[in-house]
Amino acid sequence: MGAFKDFVAPRYELKEAVRDVSFQINKGEIVGYIGPNGAGKSTTIKMMVGILVPTAGRIEIGGLAPYDNRLENSRKIGVVFGQRTQLWWDIPVIETYKLMQYIYKISNEQYEHNIRQFSEILGIDEFMYTPVRQLSLGQRMRADLCAALLHNPEILYLDEPTIGLDVDVKERVRGFIKEVNRTRETTVILTTHDTSDLDKLCSRVMVIDQGELMYDGELDYLKRNYSKCDILTIETESEMPEQWLRERFNDAYTREGRKCHIRIEQEQESSADCIAWFIHNSRVKDVQIRQTDIDEVIRNLYQTFKQAERE
Ligand SMILES: Nc1ncnc2c1ncn2[C@@H]1O[C@H](COP(=O)(O)OP(=O)(O)OP(=O)(O)O)[C@@H](O)[C@H]1O
Ligand SMILES: [Mg+2]
Predict the structure, then answer these.
(1) d(CA 22, CA 26)
(2) Burial status of residue 39 (CB atoms within 10 A of its CB: 0-12, 13-18, 19 or more)
């Protein structure tokens, strides 16, 4: 009934998916494009590859507007949407590649060279003759990556290329992206929810929220400014008296028996001073420092956005 109603009397609502997003990317860069669900990442990528036409503003990729020059643009780009496949469902992987060779007019030499190199790094030869419908997610993703790169594109768009992959395949995919970027100077634009992708691949990140660009710059800067604290864990031979800890650290500590976890806020406290204090007052058995990981940084960043909205 709902489907029928939608068909005869559809209701429309205007949605601004991206607004005032401006950036420039140089040849050979790997840029991470991140943001919460529904932020507008895929929409930006779709505009850049020419699937969507922006209602306002301008996009130029190598001097061309992608949506006006779709054919020419598509020769220069490779695209992988982690959620979808561009491989033909019913035929073996190799047949898709042959079709691509024909469509993109790839020379035999380049084709052979690429297939050989991709097999080496990604191990696609294991399932080259299997129909795509029988591939596992990780195999399909690897096959898709190769398909996107067969014609030696200058730019590679990756929309969540590591979604759902196991640790080993993730690592291989990352290694492959890095290698392609290094050896062919391919520009890579990567959206992901897996922060270790960023750590391994990108020095620059752009953060989008609710359709607006909130940050564009070094990943390291982001880490330094949005990591709130380090956690120092010290194990002593006997339990530290509660009162000493309270006097020294106020409420910046928690304890589990002989272990104390101290929150180190860099501007107020130094780990070295803390460790010295423990050594002075007890026999220390073990010391560990855990730095804020990138996940925490991104969480802090998104929370800051949410807070700013409420205010
Ligand atoms: N074809 C469409 N028609 C209407 N609204 C859309 C369409 N595609 C996306 N949107 C809306 O635009 C907004 C941005 O969506 P987009 O897919 O770009 O988000 P995203 O950042 O890629 O999110 P995710 O991390 O979940 O993939 C969302 O609110 C979404 O509901
Ligand atoms: Mg998306």
Answers:
(1) 14
(2) buried
Per-residue model confidence as pLDDT tens digits over 149-167: 999 999 999 999 998 888 9
- Which-ligand-closest: CA of 19? 1
Nearest CA, atom 24, ligand 1:
37
- 184's CB contacts (< 8 A; 6+ apart) are 152
CA distance 225 to 184: 33
Q: Whose CA is nearest to atom 6 of ligand 1?
A: 17
- pLDDT averaged over the chain? 89
Tokens of 2: 């709902």
Q: Are 148 and 78 in contact (CB under 8 A)?
A: yes
From 261, 264, 282, select the one nearest 273 (Cα to Cα).
264
Which two structure tokens, joined as six digits, stand for 157? 């768009």
User: Which residues form the pocket of ligand 1, taking CB atoms under 6 Å from any ligand atom?
Assistant: 15, 17, 35, 37-43
Burial 152-169 (b: 16+ CB within 10 A, else e): bbbbbbbbbbbbebeeeb
Length of the chain equals 311
Nearest CA residue ID for atom 30, ligand 1: 38
Residue to mutate (ligand 1; options 13, 21, 41, 84; most atoms within 8 A of CB): 41
Cβ-based neighbour number of residue 260 at 10 Å: 21
Summarised one tens digit per residue, pLDDT across range 34-78 is: 988 889 999 999 999 999 999 999 999 988 899 898 889 989 999
Kindly state the DSSP code that residue 252 receives in the 8-state scheme: S
